[in-house]
Amino acid sequence: MLLEQILARxxxxxxxxxxxxxxxxxxxxEERIRQWPAAWGDDLHVLVxxxxxxxxxxxxxxxxxxxxxxEKKTSTIIxxxxxxLEAIVNVKDKSxxxxxxxxKRINLLLGMWTLKGNSGCGWWSWITHPGGGxxxxxxxHADIDQATTALLQQPAEVxxxxxxxxxxVREPRNLVLESYRPDIxxxxxxxxxxFECLVEAVCIxxxxxxxxxxxxxxxxxxFIEEHSGPLTAADIQDxxxxxxxxxxxxxxxxxxxxxxxxxxxxxxxxxxxRMPKEDRLYDIRNAINHGDIDAENPxxxxxxxxKLSRLMRMVWPMxxxxxI
Length: 324
Fold this sequence. Notes:
Layout (H helix, E strand, L loop, with lengths): L1 H14 L4 H15 L8 E8 L8 E3 L4 E3 L14 E8 L5 H22 L3 E4 L19 H9 L3 H15 L13 H22 L7 H14 L6 H12 L3 H13 L3 H10 L7 H9 L8 H26 L1
Helix pairs in contact: 1-2, 2-12, 5-6, 6-9, 6-11, 6-12, 9-10
C-alpha cells in the first residue's frame, strides 16, 4: 500500500513536469515527513557532528531557532566524527518547504562554526539525507585483467584521458560507512569531468570532421526557423555555442554518436539543448561550479541526483568502448 501511494504521488509530480526519478525522490521525501516521529513534537531533530568539544550545557542560536544539546551521542550512523550531538530545529510545519528552510539554517550554523574554528563538521537527518555511500564489491572480477590490458593498449594520449576519467569516477564517492555525508554535488561535477575526458578520448581515436561554412549556415537557418518569436539573448548564445563556434559541444555530439549511434542525438539534446535550460546536464555542472545550485535545498539536491543518474548512463557505456 505504501509503495502504491508513493508511485501514485510520483505520477502526479511527473505529470506536473518533473523528471520521473526526481518525482519519485520527492514523493519519498514527502512520505518520510509524514512518518515524523511523535517524540520530536513539532520540531526537527538532527545530528550534528565534527571535530569539536561538546558544550557543557545546551546552546540556543536564537536567530537560527536551533538548540544544540550537550550530551554526546553514541551508536549512531556517524562513524568518523570526534563528537556527535543532537540539535533541535524549530520548523513552521511538517512540509518540504519547512524542511528546506530548516536545512538552510542548519547549514548556515555549520558554516559559521567552520569560519570560527576551521574544523570539519556536518549534519544528518533520516528525513533529509538519502544514502550517499558506495557499495561493497568483490576484488576478484574475472574480466579485470582483460579490461586493463585493453586499456593499456590505447595510445598514450588516449590513455591519459582515460586515466583522468577513471580518477573522476573514483574520487568523489563516499565509503559505505560515510553514507551520512551528502556527495551529490561533488559526484555530479566529477562525473561531468569524466564525461569530458571520455569525449576527448573518443575524438582522438575517431576525429570529428569539420563542418563547412555552408553546413553551419544551414544549421543557423534551421535554428532561426525553429523560433517563431524574436530571438532572446539566451537563444543567440545557444546558437553561437552549438553552431557558430561549438567547441566542446561539437566534440560531444560526435562522441555520443560514435558511442551510442541513433541514441546519440537524444543524449546530446539532454546535455546541451533541453528546455528549460537549467535542466541541461551541461548547465547543471556550470550551476554547481558557479554557486548557482542551492546546495542547502533538499528538493534541489534530489533534482541534481536525478540528473546524475542520466549522466552515469552515458559515462559507463563510454568506458566500455575502450576496455572491451
